[in-house]
Each structure stands twice: as structure tokens, then as C-alpha cells.
């Protein structure tokens, strides 16, 4: 409801300002549901990540943020919250194989819906299954302004997709790379390990180089050589791996593309690992900023 209200206020402001017909509005998301948060997380839809569910140790538990696994004989999924050295709360987590949303590179965290509104330019009610990315927003806006995008930008101009035109050669056999951290080994302190390319998409084919559940769960990343392949259009749940022998050319292109991509990317260290608590909104410091009450005021922890 809050998101609906916020979007409505923005669109109303554009109307009130008389610029709605001259404004491109793009509405999308940067990630999928935080599965370990359960009732607060949202839905994965058809993007279940079934392969992981069937290939991760059943003893592995994913807990909500700030909670840690503390399995008991009668509660194998028990998670506890420790605050100021004391047991503040406990609840049950989920199997790591189910945690394929936020913090992962499974489809439920990658394939986001997107809406575009621009009266007179974007035809109402049109749809597309072109593989585009939020990386494309800046190059596209620059193109619409008749500006040249810098060559070091990762995205491409998708204005033809917005206009409903065919023949965007930049999207034919486009390669998209998906990075994450949380590796057991690497130059970064635990639990980060290192940042690396774990999955690649070319058209309908998604290739997994490393598989793992979300965030920093206890399951160890698994390397795949040859890559683990899925047709994510026909199999959005990533349940049925393709035969690599039938996709030799695609695999070769993926491996070469990854090699070139990493060679020109400063990928060993993230931009920052620091988290300054001064920027964290907090309604109740005594409970580690978690509360079930609606606060009348907030403080900064």
C-alpha cells in the first residue's frame, strides 16, 4: 500500500506540473523477495530455484537478518537473535535451498517486472520479453537526450524496446554477467571471501559457474565445469538442467566472455565493506532496532 501511494503521488505531481506527457517513468525493482524473512518477504512466483532445493544439505538453515542458526532436536530450523550478549528472540528459519531470492543470483532475484509510461511515445498495453537490465537505464536516457553514452558503461540503449520497434542488434545474443560475494576463499574478510561472476545469461540460456543460496548462509558454493545450464524461459523454476553436450558452442562463448569481462573489471574488492550505524534508522535500540510496535518517533542508532 505504501509503494502504491508513493507511486501515485509521483505520477500526480507530474500531472499537476503539466509535464506528464514529456516524462518517461520507469517502475521496477532492484531485487526479489528476502525469503528468509518469510511472511515479510513477498513471493518468488514461478522462480523457485528447484535445483538448489534438491542439492543443498537439508541441515542448512537460512535465518532472518541478524539471527543465527541454533538448531535444537525438536526445532532443527531454530534461529536466535543475540543483542548485547543476551538471547533477545528466536524463531524458525527456512531450508537454505529455499533461500533463492534477495542476496542470490537465482531467477527470483534477477527477473524483475518493469513498467514504462510515456504518453505518445510508449504504446499503452504493449509487452516484451527482451532481456534488458537496469544497467540500460542511463544509456537509454542519454540516447533519448541525443547524448553519447560513455564506452565504459555496461548497459545499452533500449529505446527501440520502449518504442516497440524490432531489430535492436545490441540485444541479439547479449551477454549479462551476475556477480556476488560470500565465497569460502578470497582476499576479503569472512563472510565476504571475494566477489566473482557466478552466473551468465545469453538469450534464454542461463549458465551457472557457481551455485549457492542467498547471502552468507552456511552452504558452501559449488563450482560447475561445464557450467550448469537452464533454459529460464521454458524452465523459470531452474529445475531441469540442459545437456551441456548439446550447447558446446554456447558454453565456449560464455567461458570466453567471462574471461574477457573479468580481465577488464576491478573485481577483487568491493567499493566498500563499511556500514556506518549512524545511517541506520532505529525505533528501539534495546531490541536491536527490531520492534513489533508502531513508533511515534525514531532515533538514529
Descriptive account of the structure:
There is one protein chain. With about 300 residues, this protein is α+β, with helices and mostly antiparallel strands. Helices cover about 15% and strands about 20% of the residues. The chain is built from six helices and 13 strands. The chain has a four-stranded antiparallel sheet, covered by helices on one side. A three-stranded antiparallel sheet has the order 3-4-5, with no helix packed on it. Strand 9 (about 195-200) and strand 10 form a beta hairpin. The longest helix has 16 residues, at about 250-265. The protein is globular, with a radius of gyration of 22 Å. The model is unreliable at about 295-300 (pLDDT under 50).
User: Which strands sit side by side, in order, in the main sheet?
Assistant: 8-9-10-11
- The outline comes out as globular
What proportion strand? 15-25%
Class of secondary structure makeup: alpha+beta
User: What is the count of DSSP helices, taking H or I runs of 4+ residues?
Assistant: 6
